[in-house]
Amino acid sequence: AFDERDPAVKSLLSMAIRTANRLGKYVGICGQGPSDHVDFALWLMDEGIQSMSLNPDTVVDTWLKLAAHAKET
Asked: How far apart are CA 14 and CA 5, in angstroms?
């Protein structure tokens, strides 16, 4: 089964995010991963992604966790 938290997937995403940021390009992600796995959403934020889509039922909880994490770092 596919898991967006697999190290190989995260490595590829990390390369894409870093490259886009280095080149001054917008980078965002849509998909189920950030909604299903808050740890994945936090990791994406730490990697420097500018935006991510979330399912309506997870938006508030995920935003609060992202905001709390941002305050800690």
From this structure: 12
Residue 36 to residues 10, 20, 31, 52, 61: CA-CA distances in angstroms?
15, 25, 9, 12, 11
Per-residue confidence at 70, pLDDT binned at 50, 70, 90?
very high
Under 8 Å between Cβ of 17 and 45: no
Helices (H), the chain: 7-22, 33-36, 38-47, 59-72
Q: Is residue 55 in a domain? A: yes
- Structural domain that includes position 24: 16-72
Number of structural domains (the chain) is: 1
